[in-house]
Amino acid sequence: MKEKKLIRLNNLLLKIFFIAFMTAISNSSYSDEGKIELIKNDWSFKGIIGTFDRNSLQRGYRVYQEVCSGCHSIQHLSYRNLSEKGGPEFTLDEAKAIAEQFEITDGPNDEGEMFTRSRRLSDKFASPFPNVQAATIANGGAYPPDMSVLVKARKGGADYIYSLLLGYEEPPAGYELDEGIYYNKYMPGQKIMMSKPLFEGSVEYSDGTQATEEQLAKDVTTFLVWAAEPHLEASHKMGFKVFLYLIILLTLVYLSKQKVWSRPDLKEDSNQKEETFDKVERAATEYEGEDPKTFR
Ligand code: HEC
After folding, report:
1. Any idea which fold 33-77+125-230 has?
2. Residue range 10-24: average pLDDT?
3. Prediction pTM value
């Protein structure tokens, strides 16, 4: 019997091992074929206690503003988000000054007329185009996607955006590219209708950081990750608290289980049994001889 069980267990283990092995093999050959490994970065915001690099976020905003915002909108962000905790944390005055650089149509006023005014903290980010169609026409037929959730919408997230920004190169010999289409090794299909947006020194950093292509890409990617998830830090903090709470709860439950289900030492137990037995016997002898019916 025992041997049979052992053999069955062995077979099961073999099967599990085989399946794991096959998945590993098929995965690696899959990634070898069509996929190109993304450039991996040590992002400060990864992991359950990850936080954003404040300076990188502020520089990233500048890159977005000066380069990407010519074509890409971030519709769900308001200027006040720029000064909120967990974000770039510009001061309120800085955020106000940023908002005031952009105009918006408001109204109607008392005379029933629409008017333009500068934006306030409560206003949404200005969009480069009035609608999707206008944006598509202006970009030769390709819509520059809104960046509100772009990082989340693309497989590979931050690593993909970073790699894409640095992935422009000369097409291989004999590769046909139409007018307005560029070769990017990280874009699915390698063809992209966005010309290379970042070059060394595209943005002049005021904090003395070298504006290399990699640095610009890193900063703007960090900013876009935050833009897609402005409350990431808060949820990380909450997640960490819940984790801690669960650990404490688990320890308490374990300790009380130990206490409630603890059995007195076996030796003590048999002593106790003996004592009880003695008592019963003694009581029985005391009443020996008496008629049980007279005993109350
Ligand atoms: C001149 C306009 C223009 C500028 C400036 C620009 N983009 Fe784009 N971008 C586009 C267009 C158009 C597309 C759509 C390309 C396509 O679908 O082939 C695009 C697509 C993208 C994509 C999506 C790729 C995908 O997987 O579909 C990302 C990410 C992106 N841009 C990031 C940026 C960043 C970051 C900047 C600023 C550093 C920037 N872009 C600046 C026009 C622009």
Report:
1. Cytochrome Bc1 Complex; Chain D, domain 2 (1.10.760)
2. 66
3. 0.79
